[in-house]
Write a structure and sequence with these properties.
The protein is an alpha/beta fold. It contains 11 helices and 22 strands. Helix 7 runs parallel beside helix 8 (297-309). The two termini are 35 Å apart.
Length: 467
Amino acid sequence: MTRSVARLVLVLALAPLVTIGAQTPRPGAPALPTGPSRTDFTMALTGDSIVTRHVNVYAEPAWLKLLSLLRDADVAFTNLEMLFHDYEPYPMPQSVPGTYVRAEPAIAKDLTWMGFDMVARANNHAADFGVLGMQLTTKYVGEAGLVQAGAGDSLAEAREAKFLDTPRGRVALVSACTLFDDYGRAGDTRGDIPPRPGVNALRFTTTYVVTRERLDGLRATLAELGLAPPASAQSDQLRVFGNRFVAGDAPQVKTEPLKEDLDAIAAVVRNASRLADYTLVTFHGHEQGRSRFEPPAFWMTFAHVMIDAGADLVVGHGPHVLRGIEIYKGKPILYSVGNLFFQNETELRLPSDAYETFKLGPTSHVADFNDQRYDFDRRGFPAQREIWESVVAIPRWQGRQLMELTLYPITLGFGRPRMERGRPMLAPADLGKKIIDDVIRLSAPYHTEIAWDGAVGRVNLVAGSTK
């Protein structure tokens, strides 16, 4: 049953209560339900949406089937890695990692047309056009009817959960990011100075473990340059340029979430989980473990703490590739679901700073920038197949019990011209199997079992569940 049909059924079912005795219940009348029914509840979970063009003009069967998938879910979610404005704000001096994202405000309504209900706003592009760009985006996203979390005019507002009411249950959304420009991180106030608008940031620490010999050699080199105490000042650690190095038996990189951020976000999740039937926590970042397909340790710590705090599932996005799935205490952690839209090559305008990066003069335009940045599609995103292959994840609950997690493989058009690629469609069977096989391989370290049934991937929610 689609959401539109479900809502019509609900209206008709409640009509007698509204017109006959809604003010004073009949004696002995049964109590109205106070929670979700035992019927199914589904979410459609997608990754990054960098959408710069209208999408309501297409009619390919694989596109229309994807739309049905989104619209038939009780709740559809995407990470909105996009700003909506008419160039009223000016760009910031830099954008991490280099693309200034912006689209015309009317495109926000295309997401609602597609079936989306909720969007995450905490990501590294939220401050590309400063506070005004963020606030205008909030305005247009709200006018489109989308519930949004992760950005606000204060840290409290950016951090708080936002809620969506549906006929079958209430959903809470908490959005955080680990990659951001410092000026885009939301701040608190003590009451005497206004708070800083921005995103809900999860900060973290990084410690580089090196052998004693390497540490002493690094200290000696820095001492010669006048950047560290003399080499005779031996210790087991060294801080330089904001990095912490410690002596150890073997080289490794250790990452940990900042406790004050972790505790504060967990408190929000504990509150939300007692106010909603289902709590979704999402986080955005580019950090990696040993490769871009593996999350860093602090992502795993964060995800586990969020589920311990009451989240029903945790969804990651940001690296623009698929990562593995972990089932933790019976609840899914999707470390990255990849991309839904990736249309960063069809921006209308780019700031002067972007062109200067590639020494392009005033007669150069967006296509020239793309050619220089990607060497005519021979490097970077256009040359990397994994950027253009993703999944839509569909968890299904019965009441509060998670019954299944299904993965629908999608393609964004790897190898196609830049004016065509970047828009998702359900993948054909041969490519779909390849995409699900990738998820199976990436999920193996978490002992998660996933089966390909010829059309979709099905996650075993019991086998390999970690505690």
